[in-house]
Design goal:
The chain is built from two helices and 13 strands. It is mostly beta strands.
């Protein structure tokens, strides 16, 4: 007969060679496989970046070129609707941060909404003209389902002197957020919060980070 002895140790107990502790495992799905939970040398959970079918991480380089309206654009005016996932995500908790580069000058701010690509809000925003139409969705039906995350009043700052502006975070509004996403594809919607000056129609919109943490 083989007996298994517990080797539970309290947190902070000095480890020794050949003593792995008690492993914790779970199933990937009801018909999936068992996976053992892994931690770093410091005891923190290890996370895996979400990648598309070609193995390319979601990052600034994968952002999409988008044509937007130009000129002095006032508060509440629609800017863009951009699909930001290359494959359907599995349901789970993600850390996510947007990436916005535009041709512009001066200051101002924008707001962003991340929503399921099949949602009514995305369908509504896709009918609007960039730099012209007001972004004025109603709570019902646009926000009833499919909205995942909101970045409000992100300040725009110049990158050098070449006429490039980018959305940045601040003490009260960080770019990186941790949210639960339902399975599916996702779209980023942008509109003006305080007036901005867009000097050229080319922009690059997407994600600079998307990592599943749970």
């Amino acid at each position: 007969m083989i007996n298994q002895l517990s080797n539970n140790k309290p947190s902070g107990y000095q480890s020794i060679n050949c003593d792995a502790g008690v492993p914790i495992s779970g199933r990937t799905a009801s018909n999936g496989s068992y996976q053992i939970l892994k931690v770093s040398d410091a005891g923190a959970l290890l996370v895996q970046s979400t990648v598309d079918a070609t193995g390319v991480n979601y990052n600034i380089e994968n952002s999409a070129p988008v044509t937007i309206g130009t000129g002095l654009i006032g508060a509440g005016v629609y800017l863009f609707t951009v699909s930001v996932t290359t494959v359907s995500l599995s349901a789970g908790t993600y850390t996510i941060s947007p990436s916005v580069f535009m041709e512009g000058a001066g200051t101002g701010s924008i707001s962003l909404i991340l929503a399921d690509s099949s949602s009514l809000l995305v369908g509504y925003s896709a009918t609007l003209n960039s730099g012209i139409d007001a972004f004025a969705p109603t709570v019902v039906p646009s926000f009833v389902s499919g909205v995942a995350c909101v970045w409000h009043n992100l300040p725009l700052n110049a990158l050098g002197t070449g006429g490039v502006i980018t959305a940045t975070g601040g003490n009260a509004n960080v770019l990186e957020k941790t949210v639960y996403l339902q399975a599916g594809n996702y779209t980023l919607i942008g509109f003006v919060d305080t007036a901005i000056n867009i000097t050229g129609a080319f922009s690059k919109i997407g994600l600079q980070g998307l990592m599943q943490v749970g």
